[in-house]
Design a protein that fits this description.
The chain has 533 residues and is an all-alpha fold. The chain folds into 2 domains: 224 residues, no CATH class; 251 residues, no CATH class. The chain is built from 21 helices and 2 strands. The chain has a two-stranded antiparallel ribbon with strand order 1-2. Strand 1 and strand 2 form a beta hairpin. Helix 2 packs parallel to helix 9 and helix 17 packs across helix 19.
Amino acid sequence: MAAAGDYAWRVLALATVDGPLPKLGVVVVALLAAGAMLLRAPRPRALFTLGALALAPVLLLAEIWHAPQLRFVHQHPLMAIGAALLALAVLGAASFGLARARWLVAPLSLAALPFRVPIAAGGSTADLLVPLYLVITAGALAASVPALRAGGAREQPGGSTATGEGSSDGRPRGRDGRWSLLEWALAGYLVLYAVQALYSVGFEKALQNVVFFYVPFALLFAQLRELRWEGDLVRGCLALETALAVIFAAIGFGEYATGTLLLNPKLIASDELHPYFAVNSVFYDPDIFGRFLALVMTLLAAALIWARSRRLALSVTFVLAVLWCGLLLTLSRSSLGALLVGLAALYALRWRLWPVLGAGAAVIAVGLVALAISPTTFGLNQGLNGASSGRASLITGGGAMFEQRPLVGYGSGAFVTEYRRQYPQAASGVSASHTIPVTIAAEQGAVGLAAYLVLLASALVVLLRRARGDPARAAVAAAFLALLFNTMLYADFLEDPTTWALLAIGIALARRREELAPAGAAREPSSAAPVTA
């Protein structure tokens, strides 16, 4: 009897970790997160939010249960339980505080964005934003528990202050009370990604993306979207990100001066094999560090070109010079390109579009001439693949995979597994095509690519529509365009919480402008204040 019970337990455990339950769980948790984004009534939205919060850790633990980081849990279960109870107590206290001042979700989440903890899972290592997860969980509890206690009634007033919730009943702030196409597109892509993981040859990677990134970031999006992004809140968050960027740049200067890196042993070994030295500060990748600096610099550039005082302009210029030096030390070409795109977008939104197009054409022409004159300077003597650090092969390989399964692809998260199967000579460090559309085409086919394009189109409409002359909206739109360009040369689109944060803030700012329009369309929107003196 005991043997039968032990056998049944082993079968259940196998089904939970390697059987059908994780696949079903991925779809369910995606649906819960989508409901948390789209449901209007406070009580159902709270139930879906809490369901996603409860299910995601279960799937996560099933995935990383045998990871080295959990060795302590296996060896000292009682201490692990005590630590878990302590973590729950901290979350409870944090959620209680956030329930009284919901606007704190904004600076806390933005402050946590850069900090990652490496976790081994599925045969690879994922850099997880553990501090951000804690903020997201506390914020979700702060919003959901009062809604459940109220029994679906209206939330108590207090979230509608200048820096608090945008709507006391949890409904969207749009004039017509409807969700935008962007919000539907985000939720739809999340669910589609989970469904396409069911037949994926790289299901473990898809599970990681859903549980580690898509679901928690969807909950973050739902929280940031409801805040009033104006006045002191926007100024404070910009100052916070600027301070972090300066500190991280200073760490990068120290790394360059000493020839050492704080993190990422693989990068240290890579630097030893090349005549150049790329810094990464507190990040695990110079390109991620460079992306962070480029986005902050784009936001600061908006503050500079809309500055109303000379003192502010000089201060911002000095900070931009410091961050520019830090960006150069990352040697991240994709980040430098992203910064140029962000600056060009700001110029077009502040003044005119045609000079930007003309300058862009001139830069391309000069670049082609330089390539023709001295191809070896840019590494073209090694071929296109060598000059692009192997990315040309990844792109062509991804294109071939799309041709093989053009409709639905090989499944979410399958790029690395299938690419290595078809190209066994590929480097073992391959983790993505470094071009998001190529990755989506290979993994999700035309169906996923169509969903991605709808998402991009709706995002650009929301962020750019009537953004001209509004510094806060222009800054967010330019930063999103810069990030979008970066994903064409590097990786991580919806896997980056910055994407979700920019979209949430952009939606909130757009709806705020709609609210102000009836009071006087000719008046400068209040969102202009955050980036001026």
